[in-house]
């Protein structure tokens, strides 16, 4: 089962990448992003991509991707997922041209439609805490029905059901899963709790 959850490993040191990644995958979270403002993020991405090579259900990539040059660097490291906090047509275009999944950050209908027009795989509603489920519900009313929208920042095990009812397809989770200094065992425990809550809220759309 591939759950519509993205683990955001901000601050992950390369030495912990494989153990933390394995803990997440074992718990059932198979999409992992390492934000580019983490320590040596491309090293972590390369190690994760190599560790899970051949596992088609596992997607490794980068977050906080802001330029087309960074897209190329992520791809060279083995990443296949590009996540951004903003909508930048050049970043989206670079990702699409290189065959990568691309999830730009959006907050308004203008940003959402610009991202879709540029070829985004799906939309990252960010910061979710400001929009809230009601903000997503309003956005959903005008988006093409097939648009995938993940809530990021403000979505977690305690409110998955409310977000799902508002039209969220999935979620990006940071500190609910990982913070620098956490052991792989601690990440595993958090990941299992997240998966239980996600499944209880209805699982994939």
UniProtKB/TrEMBL annotation:
GO molecular function, one term: 2-dehydro-3-deoxy-6-phosphogalactonate aldolase activity
Entry protein name: 2-dehydro-3-deoxy-6-phosphogalactonate aldolase
Family statement drawn from the similarity comment of this UniProt entry: Belongs to the KHG/KDPG aldolase family.
Pathway entry: Carbohydrate acid metabolism
Transmembrane region(s): none
Subunit details: Homotrimer.
Record SUPFAM superfamilies: Aldolase
Keyword Cell membrane carried by entry: no
InterPro entries, alphabetized: Aldlse_KDPG_KHG, Aldolase_TIM
Coiled-coil ranges (or none): none
Species for this entry: Paenirhodobacter ferrireducens
E.C. numbers: 4.1.2.21
Keyword match Metal-binding: no
Keywords in alphabetical order: Carbohydrate metabolism, Lyase
One Pfam entry name: Aldolase
